[in-house]
Specification:
This protein is about 75% helix and about 0% strand. The protein is mainly alpha-helical.
């Protein structure tokens, strides 16, 4: 394999870290490694499972119950709340019992839960099973990131940009699969994720010895076990966690509050317009990867953070100009997606570079608290929209680009710890 600096654009997407020009030079190429290909395949299958179910879960719950919209939102939101507050426990378990074993356990829970959801319509059991999906996620997510970080320890963390790419693909294909399943029968939305995660489990079990060897080698480099409390004492990590909360708070506006504004302005055509926006967002999430990676090779990390934060601010202001024409919405989604591509992978990249090998599970687990932003976003955003109206809402949200920039701009965050 050639040096990353001489690879074609289609490959060099994984080289740019946002660490300045030539930031990846001298690092060991990893993109041809079988282990990373396995982990990316697993990430793709995971995203397909998630996006083929979650967009339709509210419809399923409304169809089998008389719960209010708020109650349904709480149940669906529990799948994010559980990993947000339990992620540290999942990460610490990954450090103690082994990340590979924990990911396998999480996949087993996922498969069992989806199978049970497909065969029961008893509301209390369905609610418990939705919460169990959050438990399964806290078992898999921090440990998967730990293994990926250890498997690519000589890289600059750009692997997490490619991992984000797999989620973009899942966001395109997953809803189409879920819609087709829902058209057959509402309970069928639980069948595709159960199948794809079972495939992931089989693949993981086949390659488990190699993954455990990677874990063992990394852990052997630590002179002594890393206490989980070190994560709480790491100010850089706490800063990254706070940045993640802000990012996810902002991101949640796209699928919670923006549709309400579009509906108020466009009426019956809102569904078509919003669906088109999401499609553009998903496609651009893939198309912008190479340009952003190339740009990251030329600009400093601080400049990239400024660009991403500014893009979020510009997106909200463009969304606010909806009354002047639908074209402003689509201009806004371009800026929005640029911000996503730049900023979303950064917290995981920073943790990759700065966390100790023996404590990566705890570090990535604590970072899962970012999902609290998903819960705060609709509450705060909806409150501002209801109290002040669309333009003040969009202006306030545009200002949230500032804390993103302030928390992630420091150059020392983006290099090895």
């Amino acid at each position: 394999m050639t040096d990353p600096g001489s690879e074609p654009a289609s490959v060099s997407i994984v080289a740019g870290a946002g660490g300045g020009a030539g930031g990846s030079s001298g690092r060991r190429p990893w993109s041809g490694d079988e282990t990373t290909r396995l982990l990316f395949a697993g990430s793709l299958l995971d995203s397909l499972a998630l996006f083929s179910t979650m967009p339709f879960l509210t419809l399923y719950l409304s169809g089998i119950s008389t719960m209010s919209t708020v109650a349904i939102g709480v149940v669906v939101g529990s799948a994010s709340l559980v990993p947000a507050f339990g992620g540290l426990a999942g990460g610490v378990l990954g450090d103690r019992v082994g990340a590979t074993s924990l990911v396998q356990a999480g996949l087993v829970v996922h498969v069992i839960v989806y199978a049970l959801l497909a065969v029961t319509r008893e509301l209390p059991l369905v609610i418990a099973l939705v919460v169990a999906l959050g438990v399964a996620r806290l078992l898999t997510e921090p440990s998967t990131k730990k293994i990926l970080s250890q498997a690519t320890r000589d890289s600059d963390g750009s692997v997490f940009r490619l991992r984000y790419l797999t989620w973009c693909v899942g966001a395109i294909v997953g809803p189409a699969v879920g819609a087709a399943a829902y058209a057959v029968a509402d309970w069928m939305i639980f069948v595709p994720p159960g199948i794809v995660l079972l495939v992931y489990l089989v693949l993981l079990r086949r390659h488990a010895p190699r993954l455990r060897l990677i874990e063992a080698r990394s852990s052997a480099e630590e002179a002594e076990p890393v206490p989980w409390s070190q994560a709480f004492a790491d100010r850089v990590l706490l800063r990254v966690v706070l940045a993640g909360v802000v990012l996810y708070f902002v991101l949640k506006q796209l699928d919670s509050i923006l549709p309400l504004v579009i509906k108020a302005e466009r009426g019956e055509s809102a569904v078509v317009v919003y669906s088109a926006l999401l499609a553009v967002n998903a496609v651009l999430g893939i198309a912008l990867q190479v340009p952003v990676a190339q740009l990251a090779e030329r600009l400093s990390a601080s400049a990239m953070v400024l660009l991403g934060s500014g893009a979020f601010a510009a997106a909200f202001l463009l969304f606010g100009a909806l009354r002047s024409g639908t074209g402003f919405l689509f201009a806004g989604i371009v800026a929005w997606t640029l911000a996503e591509v730049i900023l979303l992978p950064l917290p995981d990249m920073i943790i990759h570079n700065r966390s100790p090998n023996g404590g990566k599970g705890a570090y990535y687990g604590l970072a899962e608290f970012r999902y609290a932003g998903f819960c705060l976003g609709p509450v705060v955003g909806g409150g501002i929209l209801g109290a002040a109206g669309p333009w003040p809402y969009f202006i306030v949200m545009a200002l949230f680009g500032l804390p993103c920039w302030a928390l992630l701009r420091a150059p020392h965050l983006h290099g090895p710890g």
